[in-house]
Amino acid sequence: MLLLKQSIGRRNAMIVRLYSLILSLGSLTLITFSLWSVWSKIANVDESHAGHVEYRILTIENVTSKPFELHSLSDTDLHSLIDLPSFNFNINQKVCDNNTKLVVALVHTAPGHYAKRQAIRDTWAKMIPTLFFMGLPDSNITQNNVILENQLYSDIVQGNFIDCYRNLTYKHVMVFKWTLYYCPCARYLLKTDDDTLVNAPYLLEILNHRLSPLGARNLLMCQLILSSMVKRSYRSKWRVSYSEYPNRWYPTYCRGWAIVYSPDVIYKLYTEAQVTPYFWIDDVHITGTIAVKQNITQTDLAELAVDESDVRDDKNISRKFLFCLLSEADQSMRKFWNIILQPDDTVVSSSTNFGLDINVGNN
């Protein structure tokens, strides 16, 4: 009897060890597969972007055509916005008047963000023509304040949709629509958020000397997000359901707080966005999914786009970035701008690479 119990005990112990081994092997296989999946995604993205930048700068010799033909859009296009059939500009500006401008800044803002807009007006917007784009607030008081603000500054463009996170793609495509109809002669378009500090002297130097004062073609320049997994957690404000986006990974896309577009790219993205089903995360949708459909390759800003923590304690920042994302823009924008405007003894040659590790297309 004792021997039988011992035999049963040994058998049970072997079964437990066997189950433990199977579970360990299963866990190891799952971990290995997950790591392989992540690495494959990263490797594929890196391979697709390494040394593969397809934009082209313009010179006197190769400026042969317009970036787009507005008459190719339908007669009903102006008053449609993706799946909104009755779109209108509630407030509009026609500041370009078909005059050529090197760059125009198009700032995403919310109706209640007056302090951030004022900080931009007091700083880098003094050097770059700047407009603020928003939707409608849910308060009549806020809307009245927006109207009064626009009467004072004439720099607000407002669409007739509610301004909220879920409508960010409407706002982004509205920016494109306004550009095509009301500012087609701009050589470069800078899309930013209202918490972005633009190093305007440095940007103008790069556009004039590293790129071209005549503009570019196929340029989509930004800080890239590679290998980003779709968030499914109910605790995340960026949660996306499987019905909204069935894939596990997002395509390579831009951090939307600072993007430089050439006008032909805006036309391509706009026309594709108008016929593509709506997806509310505009950075992913516009600069990822739709850019892929239009075969547009993003150019990485790399270290030229920084967060505030990267330069907070640096007193010599005027040559170190193009765009800085601020945590408290309405409080720190002016401080950083004053540092940028301080005299800099460093003379930067027009042939300097400015940190842009890029290849310029010759086509």
From TrEMBL:
Domain of life the protein comes from: Eukaryota
GO terms for MF: hexosyltransferase activity
EC number(s) given by UniProt: 2.4.1.-
Compartments, as annotated in UniProt: Golgi apparatus membrane
Keyword Amino-acid biosynthesis: no
Similarity comment text for this entry: Belongs to the glycosyltransferase 31 family.
Protein name per Swiss-Prot or TrEMBL: Hexosyltransferase
One of the GO BP terms on file: protein O-linked glycosylation
